[in-house]
Prior knowledge:
mainly alpha; Transposase; HTH-like_dom
Amino acid sequence: MNAFIDTHRGVDGVEPICKVLPIAPSTYYWHAARRVDPRRRPTRTQRDERLCESIQRIWEENFQVYGARKVWWQLRRAGIIVARCAVEQLMRRLGLKGVRRGRSIKTTLSNRNVPSPLDRVHRQFTADRPDALWVADFT
């Protein structure tokens, strides 16, 4: 809603738009002030921004191989006490992943050029009424 109000406030003004939309003008101004002044943001948002910087720095210093657990331990060594689940969440938000050991798991690779096997049991995948046709495939 804030983006809509921002784009149309020059034409219609904030208060008339807020009368139509289910938002109070004071709420719009409050959110606009928080966007402009970072000190007015919630404490958790400020903390998460600082943690994101630390997590990004630690991940890059360790050749981008550390996962959430090792980043969490490194933060603890630096004296930053934070829950491991919070580190996992912030790393997900930043798109950071650790390197996994072993080979990657590959499932069946389909080849559309190879013909499919013939239907030797003449399966019918339609039913006249509910629970009239049961199909089990053990291939």
